[in-house]
Amino acid sequence: MTTHTASAPPGAPADLQAEFDARIAADQRIEPRDWMPEGYRKTLVRQVSQHAHSEIIGMQPEGDWIASAPSLRRKAILLAKVQDEAGHGLYLYAAAETLGVDRADLTRRLIEGRQKYSSIFNYPSLTFADVGVIGWLVDGAAICNQVPLCRSSFGPYARAMVRICKEESFHQRQGYELLMRMMEGTEEQRRMVQDAVDRWWWPSLMMFGPPDAESPNTQQSMAWRIKRDTNDDLRQKFVDMTVPQAERLGVTLPDPELTWNDERGHYDFGEPDWDEFKRVISGSGPKNAERIQRRRAAHEKGEWVREAATAYADKHSARKAAA
Amino acid sequence: MSNDTNGTTSGAARPEWPLYEVFVRGKRGLNHVHVGSLHAADDHMALHNARNLYTRRNEGVSIWVVRAEHIAASSPDEKDPYFAPSGDKVYRHPTFYPIPEDVPHI
Ligand SMILES: [Fe+2]
Ligand SMILES: [Fe+2]
Question: Mind listing the pLDDT tens digit for each residue in A199-248?
Fold first, then answer.
């Protein structure tokens, strides 16, 4: 239920804190009307709204290809996929609203550049092979990130993640299948796939965030169980999952250091360019300005529609009241 | 509400579309279950949006929407008076009644 969060009555914060801590320790869920520490609420608002923004902005790189998809089948699939991402954004805005913030305000923060979204969506999608690689690698990385969040301590966020994860597997599989078809095609098509893999591999690894040593909030978030694994652990898991898929597909992942380490039982891999990551996340990626500009334009062009719907609803409720 | 794009209505505090809670009956024989919320201008649009947002893959056979402000909820600190009866009236549960093992189908 979406109702505002209870705040600590001045009398007994110690009891409330103890009850909260006990819930977390027992791996129970915190629900919107429960008392929660202000830091927990703030961290969640930031995490959930940035996640929502990422889904919404994430429609753009693939959306660019809907009109020029090579077949009706691919167009229908891509349309359904992009529509799902819009849905993911809305599930997450709804979860954020249970923390006492308001969706219109979050949208404003996004289009005014006051809140971040995933750095991955600031790269261009240059060919149709990018659509396949985004599904395979970007949605693949998103799945790695999101599956553990289905057990987030905050109930509405965990429930939104369950819905989202159910839909992500279609996203990843349609991408991989698209790439398999292209790899069966001409030499030029295979080159397109390899080129897209070369461009998206490193940004995909960056989706898990900075290395653990430079991720100061991880400790607290893991204690609160709103993060269940560290960035580096998730990155490793993603690499381990993806290498055999790349081999089967017949593409090369652009990392000369990528080798199986028998002792660790994992793949070793190179370090992403963290300076590039910092540049892109703080606004200077190839597409940052365009992504925000387009989101803002869509919002502003929708203004008259929102107003007309409100006017229509007002007129009808007035008529009903009069009758 | 973006500031003053075109001054059609009163301009200042243009109200947001209200919040609706959405309940879906997954299949015949089950109760409607709360699945999340959305914003819509009126009931009709709320149903339409709920259909597109929460049931894109046969997740339901029936949808209820209700304005969030119309829901009355028990509050967490009322836990005792509200939920105690089920705790102390153990005789409401079948396990309260010991039945010998050799009595079938019970
Ligand atoms: Fe998504
Ligand atoms: Fe996705």
Answer: 999 999 999 999 999 988 899 999 999 999 999 999 999 999 999 999 99
What pTM did the predictor assign? Answer: 0.89
Q: Is residue B2 in some structural domain?
A: no
- pLDDT tens for each residue of B18-43: 999 999 999 999 999 999 999 999 99
Sign, CA torsion A78/A79/A84/A85: positive
**Residue B33 sits in which domain range?**
19-76
Nearest of A63, A162, A59 to residue A118 by alpha carbon: A59
Separation of CA B42 and ligand 1 centre (Å): 28
**Structural domains counted in chain B:** 1
A47, A281 Cβ separation under 8 angstroms: no
The verdict on B46 touching A (C-beta cutoff 8 Å) is no
The span from the CA of A73 to the CA of A304, in Å, is 34
Pairs across A and B, CB distance < 8 A: 79
| Closest to A212 in 3D by CA, of A230, A229, A226, A224 | A230
Domain containing B52 — which CATH number? Answer: 3.10.20.520
Q: Which two structure tokens, joined as six digits, stand for A226? A: 């709103």
Q: What is the pLDDT of residues A256-307, one digit of tens each?
A: 999 999 999 999 999 999 999 999 999 999 999 999 999 999 999 999 999 9
